[in-house]
Design goal:
Layout (H helix, E strand, L loop, with lengths): L26 H31 L11 H27 L1
Length: 96
């Protein structure tokens, strides 16, 4: 029987989500801005998931309308993820 692997502690939802301080900004503003970008990534993931759910449950017959709405949700979610990821990497590059 194989041995099970135990984790050392709780698994974080956002690995390494401690934002790096931005030079020239107040510490509270910098921290809120950094966490806001991580929340934007999570919101984008939720939007993609909701779009997939709407696509799975949509009326796909010829008379069914609104077939493009799930793709709008998914596209907006992907755009949100990409935008926040780029901003996070730029801010980490500036702060480093």
């Amino acid at each position: 029987m194989p041995k099970s692997t135990l984790l050392a502690g709780p698994v974080p939802v956002l690995p390494g989500a401690k934002p790096t301080p931005i030079p020239g900004m107040a510490p509270i503003v910098s921290e809120l801005f950094g966490y806001g970008l991580y929340v934007l990534v999570l919101a984008g993931c939720c939007a993609v998931g909701y779009g997939v759910l709407k696509l799975a449950t949509a009326d796909k017959s010829r008379s069914g309308g609104g077939a493009s709405e799930p793709f709008k949700w998914m596209g907006g979610g992907v755009l949100s993820i990409l935008l926040a990821s780029v901003l996070i990497s730029i801010l980490n590059g500036i702060a480093a």
